[in-house]
Design brief:
The complex is a heterotrimer of chains A (244), B (237) and C (224). Chain A has seven helices and no strands. By secondary structure, chain A is mainly α. Chain B is α/β, with parallel strands linked by helices. The chains are: A mainly alpha (244), B alpha/beta (237), C mainly alpha (224).
């Protein structure tokens, strides 16, 4: 992994903080605006009341959690082919942030489901696929940390990143078909989510963009942390050579 | 050539070549990287940087060609305990795509003096015999280069002398051997070149190559080398 | 293509020979399969009327767990005796090594399933003499073998290998289980091939897709 890269690379880390800080600032501002919009501006839903506002969090977070796994897939594929640590860093960071996102997606999904369907859980296609995605993320992170060495962990994780991503559409369709044979007794106001009036649709869109920035910022933070870890590793590496 | 495992540097600045018909013996303290080097040559481990060619083929671009031409004896016998010697060898013979593997199997069994134990399960053999069976497996496909990792470990006197004879015949026929060992005397009596693996690379102590015209090892020079190697090993501790 | 078939057959022959000698894999998986159906029968409160509903589900749960057990053991044995290392330093291509191992797993799993099927048919009261059912079992098991062999190769090197294989395997193989249960239900109900609907093609697509991807990825998993 870490090889004969010089300590000069450590100095180039200086560049990162400023890009990251601006990203943090933008995200912070957007998030504040988003919260204002969601809680102050968005109209209260006629049927569901205030709980419906969870929707503005749930949908962007859920979409992001799938997009995040696409980034994991890309990073994994590039890492297996090229073996540059940068790709593994992108994949790893996206997976760690992604698992948080998918957990939040599940939680907000449940919070929303309860008043809407009067049940905590239902095996409908989107929720079920999100759950499977969560399991795949967990498997990705587990195999990385349980592998015998770090470099093997990176390879095994990349394998899971690729296989998991290819598998998700198949999972989705199999559950959709299964659902059509075993329909849920609950026919939902889920359908209502398509009937969005103008304001709601705009706020939803803005919320989505906010969360894209939020995701990008978190991944940048995680990658910066990893850069520090690797710089430390390089220093150790050079010291060890000296000892031998 | 360089290799490190998870930020532990093992080999660096490695620059080595072994001519045909010679045995290179590598000494080194535990953890110096002898086994790693051998495993890289065996194509089992990929180096981080650098290029390696074995028997004329580049390890990176044509690994399968290299594998056809190497025979490896490591710490594990790579034989299946529940199969007999013969079954193991027939398996490897077929795996390597040997034509007429059956007579060849008999031939190598004879070379390692295991013909009378051919139909015993490997599990029932002594350590020395298991190692001999592993050697049989390694030479079965008539490779050009033998890679041996501490072959003397766990071998009885008879097996050691069988191996010694085999290696001498081997290099006489123009093939090469790279061998690691802890046994100073054994290594020096079998080897044409002696190197010490230390500080991530191979150092050749003074008065190195003992290769005379008719292959007779000069006793006086040998003791000089012996001292040199022992010194190099001491320095590394 | 020639270079593939030879080594694959040699590897399968060797594994069958080993299994005949030690007999530990097939027997233990068989016993496990029997235990699973007994436990499920009581856990699911399988009254006579419900057999039709529950039987395919119990069948495939048992097959899935048996698959995990079989593949785990196959790789552990090779790992310990250095068989995989012997293969890796030989000129056999990584693709062939993967396909050989997957084929061996497939054969063993099919053997176990063939032995368990009549027992299940009797205990759970359904008719096993259906070509469609057998086809479904074959295709489903193929999916298990392909994905499972890749994940076993990874899991066997991790610490906590017993938990690692199920964690990797089940989420990915879920569509196969869903489809196999659906198809089996119809097959047992006497449906024709067309009546099986989209389920068998789904498994077929899964199998084809991973038969292409897994051998390629396997090469990365086994090298250092």
């Amino acid at each position: 992994m870490a090889s004969t890269q010089s300590l000069e690379d450590t100095k180039s880390m200086g560049r990162l903080p400023s890009a990251k800080t601006s990203l943090a600032a933008i995200t912070g501002v957007m998030m504040l605006v988003d919260l204002y919009l969601i809680f102050m501006v968005a109209p209260t839903d006629a049927v569901l009341g205030h709980v419906q506002r969870v929707f503005y969090f749930h949908v962007p977070i859920a979409i992001m959690s799938f997009l995040a796994f696409f980034v994991v897939f890309l990073g994994s594929l590039m890492y297996l082919i090229k073996r540059t640590p940068k790709w593994d860093a992108i994949a790893h960071a996206s997976a760690e942030v992604g698992v948080v996102f998918v957990t939040l997606a599940l939680i907000t999904g449940i919070i929303w489901a309860r008043p809407v369907w009067n049940t905590w859980w239902t095996w409908e296609p989107r929720l079920t696929t999100t759950l499977i995605l969560w399991l795949i993320y967990v498997a990705y992170l587990m195999v990385r940390s349980y592998a015998p060495t770090e470099s093997k962990g990176a390879i095994y994780a990349a394998v899971m990143g690729i296989i998991g991503f290819v598998d998700v559409p198949i999972v989705y369709y199999s559950v959709v078909w299964w659902r059509s044979i075993h329909p849920s007794p609950v026919v939902g106001p889920f359908a209502q989510s398509d009937a969005l009036d103008g304001t709601m649709a705009l706020i939803l869109l803005y919320s989505f963009i906010t969360f894209v920035f939020f995701f990008a910022y978190m991944v940048a933070e995680r990658m910066a942390l990893r850069n520090t870890e690797e710089a430390l590793g390089r220093i150790r590496f050079v010291l060890r050579r000296g000892e031998r | 050539m360089e290799k490190s495992f998870s930020e532990w540097p093992v080999l660096w600045d490695l620059d080595l070549s072994v001519p045909w018909g010679q045995t290179l013996v590598l000494f080194g303290a535990n953890g110096a990287g002898k086994t790693t080097l051998l495993r890289i040559l065996a194509t089992h481990v990929r180096p981080d940087h650098g290029s390696i060619a074995v028997a004329g083929h580049n390890l990176r671009t044509r690994p399968e060609e290299v594998r056809r031409r190497i025979g490896v004896v490591g710490h594990r016998s790579l034989l299946y305990d529940d199969l007999t010697c013969r079954e193991n060898l027939v398996y490897y013979g077929r795996l390597y795509g040997l034509k007429d593997h059956k007579p060849r199997v008999d031939e190598v069994l004879e070379q390692v003096r295991l013909s009378n134990r051919a139909d015993h399960r490997v599990r029932t053999l002594s350590n020395g015999m298991q190692k001999r069976a592993a050697i049989a497996r390694a030479i079965l496909h008539q490779p050009d280069v033998l890679l041996l990792d501490e072959p003397e470990a766990g071998l009885d006197m008879e097996s050691v002398s069988i191996l010694g004879t085999l290696l001498a015949e081997w290099t006489d026929s123009g093939r090469s051997v790279v061998m690691t060992t802890h046994d100073l005397d054994l290594g020096l009596s079998w080897g044409h070149q002696a190197g010490v693996l230390r500080g991530g690379k191979v150092n050749f102590p003074d008065a190195n190559s003992v290769d005379d015209e008719d292959g007779i090892k000069n006793d006086v020079r040998a003791s000089g080398i012996r001292r040199a190697v022992a010194d190099a090993l001491q320095a590394g501790r | 293509m020639n270079g593939l078939v030879g080594p694959i057959l040699v590897m399968v022959w060797k594994d069958i020979l080993l299994e005949l000698r030690s007999r530990d894999l097939v027997v233990s998986v068989l016993v496990f399969g029997l235990l699973v159906v007994v436990v499920f029968n009581f856990a699911l409160n399988n009254a006579p009327g419900r057999a039709e509903e529950l039987a395919p589900g119990i069948l495939w749960t048992a097959f899935a767990f048996a698959a995990i057990l079989a593949m785990n053991r196959a790789f552990v044995r090779d790992q310990e005796q250095g068989g995989l290392e012997g293969l890796l330093i030989s000129p056999v291509s990584r693709d062939a090594i993967f396909l050989g191992k997957a084929l061996t797993s497939l054969i063993f799993m099919l053997l176990v399933e063939a032995a368990l099927l009549p027992v299940y048919a009797v205990m759970l009261d359904f008719s096993a003499l259906s070509f469609n059912l057998i086809l479904t079992i074959f295709l489903g098991t193929l999916g298990f073998a392909v994905v499972g062999t890749l994940f076993s190769a990874m899991a066997v090197q991790t610490r906590s290998r017993e938990i690692m294989l199920p964690v990797l395997f089940f989420p990915v193989v879920l569509p196969v289980i869903i489809a196999a249960v659906e198809a089996s239900t119809r097959a047992v109900g006497g449906e024709t091939f067309v009546g099986l609907g989209r389920w068998l093609p789904l498994i077929g697509v899964f199998d084809a897709l991973f038969l292409v991807i897994c051998p390629w990825i396997f090469a990365f998993v086994v090298e250092e």
